[in-house]
Amino acid sequence: MSPAEQEPAPPARGGRQAARKQVLLRLDPQVYEALARWAGDELRSANAQIEFLLRRALTEAGRLPGGAGPLPRRGRPPRRPADPDPG
């Protein structure tokens, strides 16, 4: 595998999230439509639904790598509390 094909290593604790691997996926149009409807029912994008299903299948098969990061949180990031006025 060439260096260009290797995924970047996950960042150290407290670092930024590692870059996500981009892949092209060709699906039967009816399969995609069913997937998109299912994703909409669960308030996910089609991409997030695919990742969710792949991770679930890998976990059930005992093949999810231990170093795999968690699924990214959905929705808006949580609000940070305002810094108290030091004065």
Stretches where pLDDT falls below 50 for ≥5 residues?
A: 1-15
Strand content: under 5%
Order of helices and strands: HH
Distance separating the two termini: 57 Å
Structural class: mainly alpha
What is the averaged pLDDT score?
80
Give the topology.
Layout: H1 29-41, H2 46-60
Helix pairs in contact: 1-2
Organism: Streptomyces antimicrobicus
InterPro entries: Arc_rbn_hlx_hlx, Ribbon_hlx_hlx
Protein name: AT hook motif protein
What labels would you give this structure?
single chain, 87 residues, 32% helix, 0% strand, disordered N terminus
Structure report:
It comes from Streptomyces antimicrobicus. Residues 1-21, 61-87 are annotated as: Disordered. This is AT hook motif protein. This protein has 87 residues and is an all-alpha fold. The chain has a domain at 28-62. The chain has helices spanning 29-41, 46-60.
Quick synopsis:
This protein is mainly alpha-helical and 87 residues long.
